[in-house]
Amino acid sequence: MKQQFKKLAIVAIGGLILPFMACKKSQTFSNDSQQPNTEGNLKTDGVTAWETVLWDGFDNQNTFDSHFIKTGNRSDYNSDICHYDSSVPTLSSKDGKQVVVLTATKVNSNYYKSGHIKTYLTFKPGNNQEYRVVSHIKLIAMDGSNYKGFGQTYGAWPAFWTVNEDAGVWPKKGEIDIMEAYSRPGDSQGRPTKFASNLFYGTQFNSNLLGTTCERTYNPNPVSEGWHKYEEYWKNINGVITVTTRLDDVDQGTYYNSSNSNLQLQNFGPHNIIFNLCVGSNLNKNIFNNNQINLFSQTMMWIDDVLVQKRSIY
């Protein structure tokens, strides 16, 4: 999603990966992985049980604060009119679930306040190891006291992704967009609302070599409404790296580091997990017409649980 990174203050925790205490909410995720893929003779012969590395059911503010950094006081990399405020991410009850709410609201035509969170946790699969990242997400808007579908908004750009946000790194450590959406009904250039997964990579700062070759578009109907399950599987079998994105338990895209000369998955990571709700885009991106933006009273990203697991492959 992000195509330019400015200097950031990254909070480090000793060691690359830390285990976390589970929240009270019971986990609602299946432990089933995607079916083993035999492309390139990479059929998995055996795996250990999944080990939970991070789990947050968002029942507890203290636990949430120990897992996530709430970004504040900066604009989005791709939209100068979208400003992240650390007061925006809140815990709330929605649809009978305990969730994180990221809310985008208009302050004036050149300033929209919104939310961005990322994990302290960073991760990258070692040799013969696989990681799994899962979350359930709902996108929705409100017009006063009335709910509106996300597909009725214009100019909202939510995303669930993993990346290395160190200054001057992107896209040399890769980026995996598990879900990003562009709400564009009635767009003046005729561009439709779109949901997709995508990968970015390049050997030089701020220079992506992949274009849209790794973009996999999700059907916008019914993805634009209701709750949906999004997943990333990232594994390393004797140096052959595979990344798979999934929507509602169905594989959407699978990528190997040998399948594209510009896709060097061995150089991906370590990554943080990010959820954010961008609004609009800069002129050089030409993703939205900022004069058309319509978020109604507010547009929201509801995040119900995040799970990170790892296992060994043999």
Structure, described:
- With 314 residues, this protein is mostly beta strands.
- The protein has a single domain, classed as Sandwich (Jelly Rolls).
- It is built from 2 helices and 19 strands.
- The strands form 2 sheets. Strands 1, 3, 4, 5, 6, 7, 9, 10, 15, 16, 17 and 19 form a 12-stranded mixed beta sheet that branches. It has a 7-stranded antiparallel beta sheet with strand order 2-8-18-11-12-13-14.
- A hairpin with a 2-residue loop joins β16 and β17.
- The longest helix has 7 residues.
- The radius of gyration is 19 Å and the shape is globular.
- It starts with 50 loop residues before the first strand and ends with a strand.
Summary, kept brief:
With 314 residues, the chain is mainly beta. The protein has helices spanning 61-67, 220-223, and strands at residues 51-56, 68-70, 74-76, 79-84, 90-94, 97-108, 111-114, 116-119, 129-143, 146-149, 156-163, 175-182, 194-200, 216-218, 227-237, 240-247, 250-256, 272-279, 298-312. The protein has one domain (47-312): Sandwich (Jelly Rolls).
List the helices and strands and how they pair.
Elements: E1 51-56, H1 61-67, E2 68-70, E3 74-76, E4 79-84, E5 90-94, E6 97-108, E7 111-114, E8 116-119, E9 129-143, E10 146-149, E11 156-163, E12 175-182, E13 194-200, E14 216-218, H2 220-223, E15 227-237, E16 240-247, E17 250-256, E18 272-279, E19 298-312
Parallel strand pairs: 4-7
Antiparallel strand pairs: 1-19, 2-8, 3-4, 5-6, 6-7, 6-19, 8-18, 9-10, 9-15, 9-19, 11-12, 11-18, 12-13, 13-14, 15-16, 16-17
